[in-house]
UniProtKB/TrEMBL annotation, chain A:
The keyword Nucleus applies. The lineage of its organism: Eukaryota, Viridiplantae, Streptophyta, Embryophyta, Tracheophyta. Keywords: Auxin signaling pathway, Nucleus, Ubl conjugation pathway. Residues 63-107 form the Transport inhibitor response domain. This is (wild Malaysian banana) hypothetical protein. SMART domains: LRR_CC. InterPro entries: COI1_F-box (IPR041567), F-box-like_dom_sf (IPR036047), Leu-rich_rpt (IPR001611), Leu-rich_rpt_Cys-con_subtyp (IPR006553), LRR_dom_sf (IPR032675), Transp_inhibit (IPR041101).
TrEMBL record, chain B:
This is Auxin-responsive protein. GO terms for cellular component: nucleus. Residues 1-45 are annotated as: Disordered. It comes from Musa acuminata subsp. malaccensis (Wild banana). Homodimers and heterodimers. The lineage of its organism: Eukaryota, Viridiplantae, Streptophyta, Embryophyta, Tracheophyta. It holds the Pfam family AUX_IAA. It is found in: Nucleus. One of its GO terms (biological process) is auxin-activated signaling pathway.
Amino acid sequence: MTYFPEEVVEHIVDFLGSHRDRNAVSTVCKAWYQVERLSRRNVFVGNCYAIRPERVMARFPWMKSLGVKGKPHFADFNLVPYDWGGFAQPWIEAAARGCPGLEELRLKRMVVTDDDLELLARSFPSFKSLVLVSCEGFSTDGLAAIATYCRGLRELDLQENEVEDHGRQWLSCFPDSCTSLVSLNFACLKGEINTNALERLVARCPDLRSLKLNRAISVESLNRILARAPHLVDLGTGSMMVNHHTEAYHRLINAFLGCKSLRSLSGFWDASSCCLQAVYPVCVNLTALNLSYAPAIQGDDLIKLICLCFKLQKLWVLDCIGDKGLAAVASTCKDLQELRVFPSDIYGAGTTAVTEEGLVAISSGCSKLNSLLYFCYQMTNTALVTVAKNCPHFTRFRLCILDPGKPDPVTDQPLDEGFGAIVRSCKNLRRLSLSGLLTDKVFLYIGMHAEHLEMLSIAFAGDSDKGMVYVLNGCKNLRKLEIRDCPFGDDALLKDVTKYETMRSLWMSSCDVTLGGCRALAAKMPSLNVEIINESDEADEFQENLSDLHKVEKLYVYRTVARGRTDAPDFVWIL
Amino acid sequence: MEAEASYVKDTELRLGLPGTHAPVATRGSKRALPEDDEKSHGKSKARVVGWPPIQSYRKNSFRARKAEAEVAGSYVKVSMDGAPYLRKIDLRVYRGYKELREALEDMFGCFSLGEASGAEGCTGSEHAMAYEDKDGDLMLVGDVPWEMFISSCKRLRIMKGSEARGLG
């Protein structure tokens, strides 16, 4: 196609949204590579150690939006040591040097410091949007820098980060001239907020559509905020503690009556059934509802609320909703696409909250369901088979039976057949998490049927290396495989080493792989980083003396064009 | 379900009687595996690192909440001498004695509680705020720090008349 003028190629390439398509285009020929790289505006780096930041900036100098992910997924569950890595600093520094036109930055599971945030705030004059998800390492001082220096900031979205509280003054750092905010989410902050400053900020940002408050914001303050921002589409309430028949309660009712555009509600910290009536008027329009931080809302009050939300597409709740509550969801929320049911009593007596019955009810009522995260104490094969039949559109299916390795309580059988039914029926399944008692058979089924599977999470499952091999052989589109506490060893690891080049990463912890196996993998595949994470003291001292037979506690393998890491701590060995 | 009779499985350490089907024990594990349904819930969950797979952010938020719930009670009854019925309030909603007093004035509106003089519980008018603590004793409101008050207060009583004066 060398007779095609570049402008035409560029115009055509502009229609391509997905990273995958653009990546494919760039491999056609040198000319197309050039056109594509100079016209790419959104860049996504799924693993921050797969490539050095400078290379990314050099290749895409006109980048406007950058997304980077750091730690592996199991870091969410404390399986990755605190200072393993995933530092934002080199990325922000490289971007400051190479792409000063950057407008949006999204970081997930990375370590971000206050210095990083200050550098970010000062380096990009057109900066518009900062989204930090599950990050740590910064404090409210860093937020103050963002507020102070990012003129024209549209979005500051902090999701589930660990943020050190250095006081409430950061919010006051938004200058009076800041009127551009569209989205502000500080729900994860633990400390007090300067509510006066917040109310004034909200009042002067007419385009504000999404606001998520933290637990420190009282109902009185919420009332004043809603009075000034009635056009909100997405609201995360603060502390919803309020008593009936108080002034605050009446104002709350009026406040919600005024919110005609509200489509998404979350927060409800400390909420009791008292506050629910205030929310009734907006329920009929809600498409998203997150009650997963409100354990006091249960039983009939919760059901009454749910029965008003017939347009709901996304629902996050605690398992105290019970099977009865899920039946109510099934009969009311016909448009439901995503459901997450979290456990409310993690360390307790294991009283039945939701069971397989609730899930079956949901599946029969909500045929559009495509994304599920379900924590329960038991599941049966029959139920899973029924769910598979009722809901063939699952793209994400994550089932967590809280007792590791628990069989079907009715038949005492493993859950191979149930999950088998899911992968057979759901042709578009991209993400799957398994639990319960499972043998190698379930992996055979997954390898055979889960053609589009991209991410698989396995825990306490399988009998032998065959299980892992079925998956590696069968799932052509597998990108991320994470395994814990399974009897998979070196044979499985080394069966098809080139497979890992087609994947983003492999995680194995508390399995049967040995140091020898990992060394062999590293030797055969220089295009991979083979990381051993060894936290025990003895390993430090006797590193050289460890034999090949030593069992590896945590293994993280990922493809990379940046050999090794310069920032790995002592307990991480890159073979 | 047949467990494959592999060498590894035969020599595997496991909990439970031989011959019964128990989940595979992972090597070197400090974790208690579920032996049977009834016993397992509390034990095994508490000991397995990173299980259940819930984001630490969410786990921490529940832990903090549990701790708080143990300190602060829930709703307490409020009675006022002479009033025909009682009310119930959630003490955690208020940040201090002043707010509590204002809320009670709102609630029992027709009976003015007046301004405080001296101790919070004592008023210039004829009412005193008292509370019943964990031991069942009737105490004057205002002597102890707020946090201590809400954790020990079981019931509120607005007293009037001669009884109230005696508490001043």
